[in-house]
Amino acid sequence: MPQEQHDQNVLDINNLHTGFLIDGELHHAVVDVNLSVKPKEVVCVVGESGCGKSVMSLSIMNLLPKINSKISKGEIIFNGEDLTQKTDEEMNKVRGKDISMIFQEPMTALNPVFTVGSQLQEVLFNHTDMSKQEARERGIDLLKQVGIPRPEKIIDEYPHQLSGGMRQRIMIAISIALNPKLLIADEPTTALDVTVQAQILELMKAIQEKEDMAIMLITHDLGVVAEMADKVIVMYAGKIVETANVVDLFTEPKHPYTKSMISSIPRMDEQKNKLNTIDGIVPSLKNMPHVGCRFADRCPKAFDDCTKITPQLAKVSDDHEARCLLYDACYPDTSSIEKEEVNQ
Ligand SMILES: Nc1ncnc2c1ncn2[C@@H]1O[C@H](COP(=O)(O)OP(=O)(O)OP(=O)(O)O)[C@@H](O)[C@H]1O
Q: Does residue 133 belong to any structural domain of this protein?
């Protein structure tokens, strides 16, 4: 079994394709995703709603609905093992221990009928042989670590008795309980107001530095990216369209999609009657163009080739990749009209 992992990486995703069965046909929501996460690195995955960010992260965790979804190609290498080949039972051992995940709305992830303490203890009992008393003490410690006031009291309360920000802190406490190597956070602050959002991001950053953990942070908010990322992955319609370190991405964006997203951030120093937006929407899975650039119909720079030739992701400057025919390197090896392998 090919298991290519660079020694220094926490995670290597190679050529991942994940699709959903719609009317008996497999339509891919994630196509040819390649990415790596190094220890202690914060990798932000950014893109509009429907770009495939969540499907990609749920593929890593093996949490997609089995009934209508499928990883049709590719590898997800973690700790030298391909997670796509693991059984549910084997994945249960990985989830929560080596890789944890936090979601946008903590209320849906927390169980309303159990106390904070019992939900913290559950993850400890599942993966360690701690006694009840030890788990309670570790729980209180974790609540302190995530800045929960009066942890001895809060540990016996129910999620609905707490604010949204507090609930997200509890989710973070649960997710770091077993010192995972990788934390996947899917829009962890979207449901929170801006001041609480800043506190939660600060907390995640502080924990990441203290615990030497890598984070894959999924967001549609470039403000969050600027605050948190070391490396940025920009996704559009299921494909990675640009990757760069955070400084290069904001100072020298290469893909017109990234440029449009950056120019749609409202700025205090510009007086405008209308905000910049990107006209159009991300195509649905059934309407995905099979040939050409998937962003072509919304792209201010599109030219003839863009609807006829499928660009490849290629290096366009040092440590900076893009998938756009404005760059010669992104023309596919065979420059004839290409039909994508998937969705046929
Ligand atoms: N369970 C599902 N069944 C069918 N299609 C799905 C399912 N989940 C997601 N999709 C489709 O896959 C595509 C990618 O969705 P995904 O949720 O990954 O986007 P996203 O970038 O995470 O967006 P958001 O920021 O809104 O979460 C979309 O077209 C979506 O409609």
A: no
Take atom 16 of ligand 1 and give the residue whose Cα is closest.
52
- Condensed to tens digits (0 to 9), the pLDDT of residues 185-203 reads 998 888 778 888 888 888 8
- The distance between the two most distant Cα atoms of the chain, rounded to a whole number of Å, is 68
CB 149 within 8 A of CB 186: no
Residue 37 lies in a domain: yes
Residue 260 counted as domain residue: yes
Instruction: Please tell me the total count of domains within the chain.
Output: 1
- Binding site membership of 284 for ligand 1 (Cβ less than 6 Å): yes
Torsional class of 179: left (φ above 0), alpha (ψ -120 to 50), beta (otherwise):
left
Per-residue pLDDT tens digits for 126-165: 889 999 999 999 999 999 989 899 999 999 999 999 988 8
- Is the CB–ligand 1 distance for residue 138 below 6 Å? no
Pocket test for ligand 1, best of 46, 54, 190, 224 (most atoms within 8 A of CB): 54
Length of the chain: 344
Ligand 1 pocket test, pick from 16, 26, 51, 69 with the greatest ligand atom count within 8 Å of Cβ, gives: 51
Q: Could you tell me the CATH number of the domain that includes residue 261?
A: 3.40.50.300
| Domain region containing 317 | 11-98+180-330
Task: Judge whether 92 lies within some domain.
Answer: yes
185 SS3 class: strand
